[in-house]
Design the sequence.
């Protein structure tokens, strides 16, 4: 676990903890999966539509997007940070569109731990917090499995301590 | 609590992992399996007929081809392999689905490839639902859903045997209520508050006069848009020599619109808000009159807006987000607006009843409704934000009061949003590329879902970061003080 340097939009909070760099591979797998999907669509258009440039344009766009997403994948992963504070969990994400969310322990309704196939190969898990507000939607991917379990237990215990109504 | 808990501790409440009903994977993938079987069966039907009656072979059919080329054995092996694989997958998936209940929480884990674990506190559970889909009923299984507040947050136990499901429901409810009784503050009975609001005599706050009921609908944007379309399109079509045809084609549209407008006028006419000692009572409905109680603690966010055309008349529409409605989604019509059309004076009386913190804050409310810039001590958007909202930036601003957050916005359509601190669920801070360029950000106090969007836009970036921290601290602090509304008052709305 790494301590991240401060950023432009971090609300003056310090002690950000980063997620596992191995998450990059999960991101890359996701990008490649969608690239394959896009390529299939492009190839289909190339075969079916008599105007070839439509298919080539689609393939070109897919290729460009894939390259861009692959290049920024490591930065996206490095941008994810979290702090376990006295009363709340703060999570930050995103480079182009920065987002910072603070969820007070007392407001948590549920804590989910999800593991996708690629993440599981790398021993990673994703934590998801649910509050009564649909807009909260806090996910924290790229936690090593033991750390995710530990964090889940810590969050559940604190939620118990500080429970409040809606 | 211990007494209830100990009596409730039966088979499932022991903190050990339990498997679900063995038929679970079959039932979950049941539809697909059934579809495949039916499809294959349908295709094989003719072969069975052929086999029995010895009809002549026409050829060209895959099954016949297999028979002709001595491929029966490989084909049978493939079929067997597929069956074994699916049985194996089903078995793995069943092995991977488990649940556990201990003293405080329920944990469910399932999924072979995508492992999911969901943990819910027992005292967060609002109710337990048992349902039996057709296939499940055939094997005597049931789906148990534990309701937890929040979007898509239910804990599903699919599937359990009927007996186990009933038993589990009893246990979970007993445990949850045990927690509830231990937690609930003395003398506070939310049900009675609601009942009191519905029966107490009160004073009318919002009464819609016939003139206003009709005028508000006639001045609505949809009607004006319709009139404009008719006024523009019909002459154009007439000019093209299609006058009568165009007129005829518009008849159904006009009839439909008149019906809708008439219904709206009717609803407005029947509308009233009455204030009682414990909260406000809202009556509405055209055919059947419905009456709802809105105690102040149930208001999670408030939205007061004024469309441009209503401005000369000084009318406002008031909408609220309420916890019970987020889950229920019934009567969406009345959910959308608490008061469909109210005068400024009525709004100023109504708001303090819904958010007690706003009492004796008349100047502040007026500034929030019609003010701009820093009137009413609002923190205005910085001037550079005009590039993002050329008109609305002057009115965009926020203000923190002792116990709530006010967000003002909208130039043509004036809007004011009020969020009581104690109802904030979480806070977010967002900044896109354009916003970064202009050094502004969006602060978003999250509340339960409903018609009101509670975003504070165009806040100076530095101020926004401080505001984010402030709101979070205020929220935590306000929640500590606010003990009057436990989650269980939600249950009374169901």
Sequence:
């Amino acid at each position: 676990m790494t301590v991240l340097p401060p950023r432009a939009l971090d609300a003056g909070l310090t002690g950000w903890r980063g997620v596992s760099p191995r998450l990059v591979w999960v991101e890359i797998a996701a990008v490649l999966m969608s690239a394959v999907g896009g390529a299939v669509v492009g190839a289909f258009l190339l075969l079916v539509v008599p105007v070839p440039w439509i298919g080539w344009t689609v393939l070109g766009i897919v290729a460009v997007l894939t390259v861009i997403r692959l290049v920024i994948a490591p930065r996206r992963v490095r941008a994810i940070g979290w702090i376990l504070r006295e009363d709340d969990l703060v999570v930050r994400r995103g480079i182009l569109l920065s987002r910072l969310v603070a969820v007070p322990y007392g407001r948590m309704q549920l804590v989910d731990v999800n593991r996708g196939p690629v993440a599981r190969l790398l021993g990673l898990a994703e934590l998801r917090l649910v509050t009564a507000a649909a807009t909260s939607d806090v996910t924290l991917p790229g936690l090593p499995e033991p750390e995710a379990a530990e964090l889940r237990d810590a969050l559940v215990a604190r939620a118990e301590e500080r429970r409040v109504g809606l | 609590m211990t007494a209830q808990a100990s009596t409730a501790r039966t088979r499932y409440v022991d903190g050990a992992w339990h498997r679900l009903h063995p038929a679970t994977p079959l039932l979950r993938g049941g539809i697909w399996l059934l579809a495949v079987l039916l499809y294959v069966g349908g295709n094989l039907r003719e072969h069975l007929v052929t086999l029995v009656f010895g009809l002549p072979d026409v050829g060209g059919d895959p099954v016949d081809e297999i028979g002709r080329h001595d491929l029966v054995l490989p084909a049978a092996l493939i079929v067997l392999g597929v069956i074994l694989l699916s049985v194996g997958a089903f078995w793995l998936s069943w092995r991977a689905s488990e649940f556990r209940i201990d003293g405080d929480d329920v944990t469910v884990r399932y999924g072979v490839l995508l492992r999911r674990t969901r943990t819910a506190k027992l005292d967060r559970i609002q109710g337990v639902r048992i349902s039996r889909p057709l296939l499940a009923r055939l094997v005597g299984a049931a789906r148990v859903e534990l309701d937890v507040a929040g979007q898509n947050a239910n804990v599903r136990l699919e599937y359990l045997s009927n007996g186990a499901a009933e038993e589990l429901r009893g246990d979970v409810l007993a445990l949850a209520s045990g927690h509830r009784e231990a937690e609930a503050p003395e003398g506070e009975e939310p049900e009675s508050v609601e009942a009191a609001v519905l029966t107490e005599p009160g004073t009318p706050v919002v009464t819609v006069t016939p003139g206003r009921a009709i005028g508000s609908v006639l001045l609505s944007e949809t009607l004006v848009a319709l009139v404009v379309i008719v006024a523009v399109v019909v002459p154009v079509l007439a000019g093209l020599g299609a006058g009568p045809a165009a007129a005829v084609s518009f008849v159904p549209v006009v009839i439909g619109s008149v019906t809708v407008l008439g219904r709206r006028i009717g609803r407005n006419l029947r509308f009233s808000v009455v204030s009682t000692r414990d909260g406000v009572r809202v009556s509405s409905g055209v055919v059947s009159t419905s009456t709802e109680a809105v105690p102040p603690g149930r208001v999670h966010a408030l939205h007061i807006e004024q469309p441009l055309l209503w401005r000369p008349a000084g009318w406002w529409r008031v909408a609220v987000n309420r916890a019970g409605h987020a889950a229920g989604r019934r009567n969406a019509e009345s959910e959308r607006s608490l008061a469909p059309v109210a005068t400024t004076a009525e709004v100023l009386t109504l708001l303090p009843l819904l958010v007690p913190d706003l009492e004796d804050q008349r100047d502040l409310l007026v500034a929030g409704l019609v003010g701009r810039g820093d009137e009413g001590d609002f923190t205005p958007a910085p001037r550079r934000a005009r590039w993002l909202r050329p008109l609305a930036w002057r009115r965009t601003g926020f203000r923190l009061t002792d116990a709530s957050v006010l967000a003002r916005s909208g130039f043509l359509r004036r809007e004011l949003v009020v969020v009581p601190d104690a109802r904030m669920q979480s806070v977010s801070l967002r900044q896109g590329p354009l916003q970064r360029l202009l050094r502004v950000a969006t602060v978003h106090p999250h509340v339960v879902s409903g018609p009101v969007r509670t975003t504070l836009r165009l806040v100076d970036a530095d101020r926004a970061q401080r505001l984010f921290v402030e709101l979070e601290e205020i929220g935590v602090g306000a929640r500590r003080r606010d003990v009057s509304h436990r989650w269980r008052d939600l249950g009374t709305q169901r």
